[in-house]
Inverse folding.
């Protein structure tokens, strides 16, 4: 996301020099630039080897921080690289102030170094005080699967393998989520493979997949599996959200459109009775819940009216008020840069349903800023720990 110079607060991590950045950029042709994001062939900096978290530290005023909202582009496996090159050639790329800029579907994006290089990103995470991070990238996967001339199944398997390999570089600091197309018949099987063979923690899906939202009956097998296996699902809006064609100015597709996409899918899930059929389903929502906290009252009054007499599809079929599901099935993260909104989320969802998330990587602002936002709320230590790590650990079993 573009930021003014005075607002662009980089972490203390080592910046890539102009010379090295252009040298690094030359390797783009061997990876994939897509939707504003890059899959590099080789990381430019050296891997860090942080020590495992000392549990004794936790007893000495040390509070761990688990970041559940983290993105970074993995290396592509060899089977995908040939097809990625041809896709790369279809994208127009130019450089602005030492940064690569791409335009896809009319949407322009900046590829920040922290997004392209896991080693550089991890340095920033460690220096900011993040203990563990849970990497996901459903946005990139959906775009890849839609544009690469190969079966979605192969793209998804290769993507998960690459994510697992990236996380393995930092076994004490990184975990990854299983990525799937929620509407694909083999989605559950791929989840099982990721959990059993790759060590995935949780499931990552888009709030929509190529225009289809999560109230689709095709997602039912996934909900059943996630509930039975007690697996939390992290949903994230796509690169090109609902209505993006009308948002080609001021980066509105990112600032507004993605929150709309999240809100749309949650409203449809609630109204269609997904959480009644799967009452133990756990959905983690980024960006402080999108616009849901501000429209939940409208969803409640729509439920009260019932809209009897209108076509059947217009009436909500959920068994409770929509706001009731906020405290039984939904969790939200802290990524939103607003203390007032975060306080509102705590009131709506409850302190037990707030998890720490920074969106670091595509958003080149240090997680330290999000940590300070939580600390400045004036919460007691118990509630701070819930936000920083306990709630996330209960969901994803990371520590």
């Amino acid at each position: 996301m573009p930021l003014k110079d005075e607002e662009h607060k980089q972490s203390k991590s080592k910046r890539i020099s102009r010379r090295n950045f252009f040298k690094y950029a030359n390797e783009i042709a061997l990876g994939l630039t897509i939707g504003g994001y890059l899959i590099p062939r080789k990381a430019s900096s050296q891997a860090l080897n942080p020590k495992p978290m000392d549990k004794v530290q936790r007893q000495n005023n040390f509070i761990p921080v688990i970041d559940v909202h983290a993105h970074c582009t993995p290396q592509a496996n060899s089977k995908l690289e040939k097809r990625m090159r041809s896709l790369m050639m279809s994208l127009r790329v130019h450089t602005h102030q030492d940064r690569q800029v791409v335009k896809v579907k009319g949407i322009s994006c900046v590829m920040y170094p922290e997004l392209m290089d896991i080693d550089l990103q991890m340095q920033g995470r460690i220096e900011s005080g993040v203990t563990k991070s849970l990497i996901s990238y459903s946005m990139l996967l959906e775009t890849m699967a839609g544009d690469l001339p190969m079966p979605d199944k192969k793209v998804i398997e290769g993507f998960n393998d690459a994510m697992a390999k990236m996380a393995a570089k930092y076994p004490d600091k990184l975990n990854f989520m299983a990525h799937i197309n929620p509407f694909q018949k083999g989605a559950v099987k791929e989840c099982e493979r990721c959990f059993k063979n790759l060590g995935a923690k949780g499931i990552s899906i888009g709030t929509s997949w190529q225009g289809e939202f999560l109230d689709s009956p095709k997602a039912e097998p996934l909900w059943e599996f996630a509930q039975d296996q007690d697996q939390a699902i992290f949903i994230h809006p796509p690169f090109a959200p609902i209505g993006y064609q009308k948002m080609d100015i001021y980066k509105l597709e990112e600032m507004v459109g993605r929150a709309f996409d999240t809100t749309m899918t949650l409203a449809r899930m609630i109204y269609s009775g997904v959480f009644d059929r799967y009452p133990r389903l756990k959905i983690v929502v980024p960006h402080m819940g999108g616009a849901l906290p501000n429209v939940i009252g409208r969803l409640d009054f729509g439920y009260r009216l019932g809209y009897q007499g209108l076509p059947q599809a217009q009436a909500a079929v959920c068994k409770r008020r929509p706001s009731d599901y906020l405290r039984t099935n939904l969790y939200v993260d802290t990524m939103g840069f607003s203390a007032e909104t975060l306080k509102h989320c705590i009131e709506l969802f409850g302190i037990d349903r707030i998890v720490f998330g920074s969106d670091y990587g595509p958003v080149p602002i240090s997680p330290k800023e999000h940590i300070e936002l939580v600390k400045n709320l004036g919460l007691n230590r118990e509630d701070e720990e819930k936000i920083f790590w306990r709630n996330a650990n209960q969901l994803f079993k990371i520590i």
About this structure: Residues 18-396 form a domain with the TIM Barrel fold (CATH 3.20.20.140).
